[in-house]
């Protein structure tokens, strides 16, 4: 804070960060509200330096940065506040899908992490899903088919951590924050994660609003089902019983559609 000449400010509510980075509301030397992200990655700093200006979506302005060994801090302009996913309107979803389609059309860039690269262990998958997903064995047996479906569409430029907590609404509309996982990847991963993260709150994301052909639609279905079955058990403990029950019901519906 001393090096970047900022001071803390009070903010109601909690800022989420599951990447290990800390995000703190601050005030700059000239009195402007901003956010200090401590524990950011050089990959994210590269995005702000190399691609943010060309982005077709709104991105927080990078006001300053600090690199001390492997530690990176980003000073970002205040972009607005997230809207609870239960309060999202049809207009907001339409704006998001328009912006995502434009982002996905960008030329390839440095790859971010694959959201399906670190699945939960078999024991965790069995423990969470065996009582709740009657077709679990079919899904486990279809793992190679799921992977083939998600990689079938051409690569896209992806945000990498697309959920409504990373999409604050500012005076000019939606702003895309947290670019730590941005880069060349799968459009289906952005869309599937958006749905997975909204499901515990009882929100069904209107994914049909995203412009996609049959191949990408199949990839989105396969990716979301794979995320739920192979990834969600790692995070189930952070959610309420009601939220997990909604996740399980969503998986049952997706499995019925995918395996028919």
Automatic annotation (TrEMBL):
This is Phosphotransferase. It comes from Paractinoplanes bogorensis. InterPro entries: Aminoglycoside_PTrfase (IPR002575), Kinase-like_dom_sf (IPR011009). Residues 40-234 form the Aminoglycoside phosphotransferase domain. It holds the Pfam family APH. Gene3D superfamilies: 3.90.1200.10.
């Amino acid at each position: 804070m001393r090096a970047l000449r900022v001071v803390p400010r009070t903010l109601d509510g909690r800022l989420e960060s599951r990447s290990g980075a800390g995000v703190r509301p601050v005030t700059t030397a000239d009195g402007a509200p901003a956010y200090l992200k401590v524990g950011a990655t050089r990959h994210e700093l590269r995005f702000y330096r190399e691609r943010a200006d060309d982005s077709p979506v709104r991105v927080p302005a990078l006001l300053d940065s600090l690199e001390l060994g492997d530690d990176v801090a980003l000073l970002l302009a205040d972009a607005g506040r997230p809207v609870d996913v239960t309060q999202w309107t049809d207009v907001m979803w339409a704006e998001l899908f328009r912006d995502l389609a434009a982002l996905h059309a960008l030329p390839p860039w440095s790859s971010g992490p694959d959201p399906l690269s670190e699945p939960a262990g078999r024991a965790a998958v069995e423990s969470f899903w065996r009582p709740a997903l009657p077709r679990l064995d079919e899904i486990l047996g279809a793992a190679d088919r799921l992977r083939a479906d998600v990689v079938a569409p051409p690569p896209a430029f992806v945000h990498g951590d697309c959920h409504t907590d990373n999409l604050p609404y500012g005076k000019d509309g939606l702003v895309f924050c947290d670019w730590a996982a941005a880069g060349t990847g799968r459009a289906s991963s952005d869309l599937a994660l958006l749905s997975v993260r909204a499901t515990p709150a009882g929100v069904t994301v209107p994914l049909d609003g995203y412009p996609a052909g049959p191949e990408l639609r199949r990839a989105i279905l396969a990716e979301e089902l794979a995320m739920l079955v192979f990834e969600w058990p790692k995070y189930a403990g952070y959610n309420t019983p009601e939220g997990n029950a909604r996740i399980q019901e969503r998986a049952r519906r997706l499995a019925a559609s995918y395996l028919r």
